[in-house]
Amino acid sequence: MPLTPITLAGSKLAAEQRRAAQKAAAATAAAAERQHRAAAKAAARAAAAAANAWENLQHKVPELDGHRATLIVCPLSVLSNWVQQLEEHTDGSLKARTACWLRGK
Fold first, then answer.
1. Is the overall model pTM greater than 0.85, yes or no?
2. For 32, which DSSP code?
């Protein structure tokens, strides 16, 4: 059976345990902050990549008089489903043009 440490208020052991708990809490908070910053940077990179892809796409797609375009950003795994759904739920006048941008690690 493991032994449970006994602490007495005001003792050196209690003070050490308090400091250790505070240090552990600070380390946990710092780790959470690092994860938050990393997630924010990843989101910013994804937004910049989407904006860049859109700018590149605008240069490649000819301007159609009176027509509008919609940019759909999605994982490659669902791209074919988007195209299929557009074909099924429109009158055929809508043409889907796809462009893939892959980011290497």
1. no
2. H
Distance (Å) of CA 30 to CA 3, 27, 34, 92: 31, 5, 6, 54
* pLDDT confidence bin for 18, thresholds 50/70/90: confident
Residue given tokens 């989101």 in the structure block: 43
Q: Residue 89 and residue 78: Cα distance in Å, rounded?
A: 17
* CA-angle at 29, arms to 25 and 32, nearest 5°: 140
For residue 5, the 8-state DSSP code is P
Q: Where are the domains of the chain?
A: 12-88
Rounded CA gap, 2 and 88, in Å? 66
Positive/negative CA dihedral, 16, 22, 27, 28:
positive
| Element (DSSP H or E) covering residue 76 | helix 76-88
Chain centroid to Cα 91, Å, comes to: 35
Phi, psi for residue 67 in degrees, rounded to 5: -105, 155
Question: What tokens does 5 get?
Answer: 């440490």
